[in-house]
Amino acid sequence: MRKKLYNVLLSDADVCFLEEQAARSDLSATERKRCQILLQMDTAHGKENTIPECASTVGVGMTTVSNVVRLYIQEGLESAIQFKRNPNSDTSRQKMSSVEDEMIYKLLDSPPPEGHRKWTMRLLAEKSGEIIGKPVSKDTICRAIKRRK
Fold first, then answer.
1. What is the reported pTM?
2. Could you state, in order of their start, the residue ranges of all structural domains in the chain?
């Protein structure tokens, strides 16, 4: 059997915090499972769970358990619980206001940048991201153009 690389040692306050977080109904399933992983892997309160045992109990993969424990040891409790997303991953779901849509329409009616024959979705996404000030995906641009028609 492999030796544990990291030991999770939770204080009583951390255990209370994790139990409260795991019981919250407004917490995402991912964050709830991360709390359960840390509670299962806690060695300070007499538990000696292995990664496979914890993975099967919580219902996640062994890699997930290893990653959550590693995050806890390296970056702390809050970092291990929070689900970090790439800032560009949710751009297709962002709601754009009508003002931002108008900016895209004006950009589309303007001549394309030098060196380009016409506007492409990627070019529009890059330029509109600069104008609007937040990342915009090419799919969002496509939906905005469809709304115009």
1. 0.58
2. 12-81, 91-148
